[in-house]
């Protein structure tokens, strides 16, 4: 029983230090991946966004967008600006943009 009581604080310290460390390293890895994708995106690249049908008798809609600008906000966070084929212009953080859009070649 005494060994168990001695091991418990050690396991607790591993958990207390390990979880934040894992979260930090995961976040840094995600940011490096976004930066790599940001460096590969070029002005004029095409992406599509598909909106699924909202009702049984509705059709899905596919919207196509062209990248018209990219920037690093405050030198860190990658943002893209894009124009849909209907003429509307929008901008998003790169991670959010890639969540909803996928690259196309036309």
Give a written overview of the molecule:
43% of the residues lie in helices and 33% in strands. It has 106 residues and is α+β, with helices and mostly antiparallel strands. Strand 3 (77-84) and strand 4 (89-93) form a beta hairpin. It is elongated, with a radius of gyration of 22 Å. The termini are far apart. The mean pLDDT is 87.
N-to-C order of helices and strands: HEEEEHE
Strand numbers in spatial order across the main sheet? 4-3-2-1-5
Helical content band: 40-55%
Distance between the termini: 69 Å
Strand share of the residues? Answer: 25-35%
Number of helices: 2
The count of DSSP E runs of length 2 or more, i.e. the number of strands, is 5
Largest sheet: 5 strands, antiparallel
Task: Compile the SSE list and pairings.
Blueprint: H1 2-40, E1 46-51, E2 61-73, E3 77-84, E4 89-93, H2 94-100, E5 102-104
Task: Please name the defining characteristics of this protein.
106 residues, 5-stranded antiparallel β-sheet, 5 strands, 43% helix
Summarize the structure.
By secondary structure, the protein is α+β, with helices and mostly antiparallel strands. 43% of the residues lie in helices and 33% in strands. Strands 4-3-2-1-5 form a five-stranded antiparallel β-sheet.
């Amino acid at each position: 029983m005494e060994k168990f009581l001695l091991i418990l604080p050690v396991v607790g310290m591993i958990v207390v230090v390990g979880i934040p460390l894992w979260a930090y390293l995961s976040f840094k890895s995600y940011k490096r991946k976004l930066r790599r994708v940001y460096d590969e995106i070029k002005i004029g690249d095409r992406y599509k966004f598909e909106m699924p049908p909202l009702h049984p008798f509705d059709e899905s809609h596919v919207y196509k967008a062209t990248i018209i600008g990219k920037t690093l906000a405050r030198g860190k966070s990658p943002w893209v600006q894009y124009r849909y084929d209907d003429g509307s212009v929008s901008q998003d953080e790169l991670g959010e943009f890639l969540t909803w859009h996928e690259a196309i070649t036309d």
